[in-house]
## 1
Amino acid sequence: MTHQAHSYHMVDPSPWPILGAAAALLTTSGLAMWFHYNSPYLLIMGLLSTALVMLQWWRDIVRESTFQGHHTPTVQKGLRYGMVLFITSEAFFFLGFFWAFFHSSLAPTPELGGQWPPTGIQPLDPMDVPLLNTAILLASGVTVTWAHHSIMEANRKQAIHALTLTVLLGFYFTALQAMEYYEAPFSISDGVYGSTFFVSTGFHGLHVIIGSTFLLVCLLRLIKYHFTPNHHFGFEAAAWYWHFVDVVWLFLYVTIYWWGS
Amino acid sequence: QALRQISQRTISTASRRQFANRVPENQKLFQEDNGLPVHLKGGAKDSLLYRTTAGLTVCGTIYAFYYLLVSSMPKKPN
């Protein structure tokens, strides 16, 4: 039986990369079919295949690490670099939308009434639900840190409690935002105010859902004893992502909700 | 280490069986020298899920290319 003379992970051949690419094709062309030909079938197939690929690809990574032991410190270092680069790319993604917001709001055109918020727009009160949402995300940052310390100290019960609280806070934020969206006196088509507001907060909300799901998966893995006090990178990646989502919200709150009202 | 010690304590009630540490069993299953790639190493459920995913994706790709060709063709007015 041959053994490798290096600490990197040479993965087994896998169908997920190519199937994932195909799923992306189906999702994007599905969007075109839905928008232009009023047919949702391709989009549904795309979203379903994307979900199936993600589930199995990440399931395989858990198998390779927790069950097969392939995640050496070298491999973990690479994963850390990867997650940092990914979060950085997401930061640039949001930067673009903040740019758009400031472009329109710092020098409001005559068509908007020369003011920000534009004439006729009733912005949401930043001291109402948005402030509660800020408190919720800040609290969830505390609970996820508590969970991390509990994992490192091998305190299983507290880790589970803290991570459960974090996930619940995440879902509470999403529920409140959904209600805010429903009740808002303005919509996405209400000029550039509506566009910048809903696209920025909308993408943020999507990231909250992604982050909450990642944390939920970590919770299930925590319950199933996958994490050890010294090796729990999946959890750390989820926590980093969650802090990033929190920071983006703080920027959104201060600029769009507060300064922009 | 402490975590492993806690997990090896005897579980008495049947309802607690779902919280028993199954990691060692899984480690044995996935390290079996059977030549299977990791995405199929879990057994029959893996193959079913793989075939469903691949089938859906391949059919969808054919569907997408078909409609791409159809929508590229000019429509003849009556």
## 2
Amino acid sequence: GCFVFKPSPKKRRVSQKTANNFGERKDDSEDTELRFVTCQSLWNEIKSETEQIQEDLNKQLFDNLVSFLRRSHSEFQEKTTEWTCRMKSKEIPTAALVLGVNVTDHDLTFRSLSEVLQNNITPYIALLEAKDCPGIKNLMQKLMGQLMNCYIDVDSLEDEDYVPVSQNRVRCSMTSLINWYESVTKKTDSETPRKKRTSSSRHWQSPPVVVIFRDMESFTTKVLQDFIVISSQHIHELPLVLIFGIATSPMIIHSLLPHSVSSLLCIELFQSISSKDHLSTLIDKVIAFLNRRSVCELKHRVLTRPLKADLSEVFEMESVPESCGFWLCIVEHFYSQPLSVLCCRLVDAKKRVDSLSHNQCENIRRLPSFRRYVESQVSEKQIALLTTDSYLKEIIQKLLEDLHVYHENYVSVLRCLHVFTSSLPKYPLGKQIRELHCACLEDQVWETEEYESSLQLARMLNKSDLVTMLQQCVEIFVSSSGKEFDKTVEKLKEFLTQFQKLEAEAFQEQDVSVSSQKELQKKTDLYHLQKTLLELKESRRSKKLTKFEMLRFEVVDYIDSLVRNYLVPADHKTLHEIVYFNTASVLREHLNAAPRIALHTALNNPYWYLKNQALKSDGGTISNKAPDICIAYKLHLECGRLINLVDWLEAFSTVVMAVEGPNADAASSDQVDDIIHARFIRAVSELELLGFIKPSKQKTDHVARLTWGGC
Amino acid sequence: MPNLEHPAYPAATLLHLESLVPCRESQVSMLLSIFGERQQFSFPSIFIYGHTSSGKTYVMQTLLNTLQLPHVFVNCVEYFTSRLLLEEILIQLQNSSSETEQTSHVPCDNFNDFVRLFKQAVASRELQDQTLYIVLDRAEQLREMEANILPAFLRLQELTDRNVTVVLLSEIVWELFRPSTGCFEPFTLYFPDYSIGHLQKILSQNHPSEYSADFYAAYINILLGVFYMVCRDLKELQHLAVLNFSKYCEPVVSGEANERDTRKLWKNIEPHLKKAMQTVYLREISSSQWERLQRDDGEPGQLKGLSAHTHVELPYYSKFLLIAAYLASYNPVRTDKRFFLKHHGKIRKTNFMKKHEKTSNHLLGPKPFPLDRLLAILYSIVDNRVAPTANIFSQITSLVTLQLLSMVGHNDQLDGPRYKCTVSLDFIRAVAR
């Protein structure tokens, strides 16, 4: 696998549902269970929340699809005999579902889609994957299997006498499918009056049969063509609807199907929202969620790290927090930080502080941020903090509360700042709130150039924009739970009223300027004209700072002060280690698997993985205690593109024989030991299996090196 | 125009038949004379070919149904294996003989069984020595089944010793069928394409009852004027005619013009049809969407066609991978050093040569390249350092499944897989932006 290095205990731990491993790393095994439980509950909350969000995001798409399906076979229901319907060639209704390459998980989407369809439209759904359908025969088999099974699923509770037909006996043709469909629909028809319309009442008399092609791109052209041609001939008897899952672009339909086939389809396009939007809504929601629950403010810092990586580098494909990164952050945090016990709701945290053991107190004293705090206190207090546990606990509670308040305020102010920056031209601080968030966590944001330039830009905003922004800010602050914002809200409201006053004044000013303009027109004398013009210019310059502009400056300065007050990076806060996870390098190691590098380390430096003291070497030398394959690998690194097997064997045996040392002198003289020979062959074939070498036909008794970078 | 005449069938039926198959009278009369009377042995196999929608299937079906000749009609695409095909023929034979009782399903694995079962089926049907017709539609599929199927069908009369005629319908010529081992030569019959006059006549035949035939014929005339250049497919034209007819009628319904006012009607419909040619005909937007647009009187511009959504979102490194793959596919290997190395020495002034190369490379299409070259180019075009992580490799694989790259050679070749870049220059330009 890809994760050969670093035995990661994550999965094992979760599956075992025990917290034993949690404390194994350090000897501070306190509260491991508690930590484990906290971690799990937190994760479950986040997970359910994100699932909810995902569902909401997909809702629009699914609603459209459902209405399309309802529409698609309405004619089939009504059996109209109108002229138009008679004459029109019947097309297969087809939904082209463009999901995009980067979108989270197609599997999940399709599963929830078929669930939705099952509930709303039809029980007859088949989901086909390209890998199951290399030929039309397999496709039909798969299709019929799924459809007929699903029938059994639906009615299994009600019919005991239904005998499931074995797959082999059913002929794999459209005719048998049609017969099946007829019998099924007839059955429900006849049953409905008898039964009190239960499940069938949700569907119509003859529900459509939905066939979903999960990955349209991978299907072979011929299979698709044949299937479409066949089903188009029976569309009158079997109300079929196709759904193409497309990852790239809908153009693929045209490139896969010739016109004669695509003319049999009635394709409508459904596009899911782009992954970027998806991601940003998700992150915004998660931040909001963490804020609301105020469970723990952990991993914000770290959240941003993988996200940055996600966006710019690798992970775009699966950048849901569920995908490793986020989960890993949480686990890693709870795993490596013994103090993460306190990473829970404030009320609980206070209780837990009371029950902290001495060891844990020592742990806290060791925190760098706490040390900084201690150093800033007066000397008596310092002693008390360092010696008395009870006093320490008191202080901790207070500090935790501070941290909590800080975070609450932080989010509100962050949003407020985002309101301002998101509408500036060129977005110096980023378009999305998450970019702003990253910037704020990274460093003191007000010291950055981008912040400076965005303030400059903010000072040039026009009035209407400014007013709407201020209103938004007021809303944010009012809705936030922070207590300190009453004043802020008042202040902002004051600004707003001032703006309104200005508006009234502005009218008058306009009048003045208009009158001066009139004066200008009256004067025809050149000297006077020049004079007035100069005056006008002068007045304009001095007027540069109108009341509005003054006010604008005030507003911007006020926002600036808010930012300086509340958007202090978390590192500067005491006890931030408890809730902020900060070791992104661990994450990178876990997430960016590098198989080649891992393989090289394993073969070059076996001690790294095996942890056997005997294998510890200084690098350059080749230890004879290393596994055979390592020796062979190291020797092969010294060779060129073509390796002479005999020389290699010679070198190999020399290295291996060194173990026996002087007493084996005689044996090593001319003939290589059979056992060593066998070991060598085995090592070489293992290397071949790993893809480092391959047999070459250029020279006899030579193998070719496959890795480049050799001399 | 040749009137259908045949002594074996009543004149009224023939007249009815003639009205059903306009513009195909000569072919039908030819077929009738080959078929002969009901009990007469006909030619063992007949091969009918002609372009898409030249009425092959329709004519055969109407002919056999109107004259009530015993027949079996099978589509070879639908019954994609020989076993399915043979069984389907037998099932159809049995069903038409005894409709009340469901005969048990008899497995029929090979042609030998088929001949035996066929004889039984024919015997039980009491055909009074009438000729039985087996029509195999889309017969080109037969070539992909076992080698003996096609020759055996051609000689079915001889093999079964029954009064049976096999009719093959196909879009391709007989020469492409002929097996290398030789076979019985069927009687070949060509169905020519419909001319514009024929199309006009056939399309006008099915006019809606609310409007007069002349009015509809005028409409068809306009329609053909627009579409005949691009499409001669009868089915497609019919479909388009129905889709756009309501728009044509609009002025008449609203009272702005009467049915005779052809010029006004033409002005109304012509731009509309042109739009239809660019959208519905190419299946850029579906016909149901088109109809909804017509009903709501919306502009088709609001609805983007399928081709409008060409933008493909790719992960960061996938974009670079794709660009690197494109470069590797279209640049010769020897230029790599010059393009991707910082210190590559002098560029020789071979401008003319280079120009020549470039054009030809794009005309020749993509060339395969090994994985290592792809990675080497990737490293040189990405600014910062790239580690060859599992992500990169898995992204290559996912590009292959998305059919943006394609693998050359066998899938199971582990060492040194070779790829080709299958996307166009425009696509790469869009990605590179």
